[in-house]
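Below is how a single chain appears once it has passed through the pipeline. First comes the sequence as given, then the structure the pipeline wrote out for it. We keep one example in the README because the format questions we get most often are answered faster by looking than by reading.
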Amino acid sequence: MATIPTLAVSKTFTFLIAPRPCRLAELRRIRTVSTVAHTEAEARAHLAGLPLVFLSRTPSKGVAA
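Resulting structure:
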C-alpha cells in the first residue's frame, strides 16, 4: 500500500518573552511574540536570542496549499 505525502501546514507559534525565570504574577508587563513555522524548533530558530516560553500553536490562516 502506497502512502500519499501531505504538505506540512504552517502554524502560528506564540511565545511569552520572559527575561528571567519567575512567576507570571511577578512580570511587570506581559510581552508576546508570534511567528509562522512548521515546527516549534523552527519557530524558536526564527526568534533566536529571545528568552521564550511556549504559549500556543494554531493553524495559520490564508496559507496556500
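The chain is about 10% helix and 30% strand.

See the next section for the split statistics.
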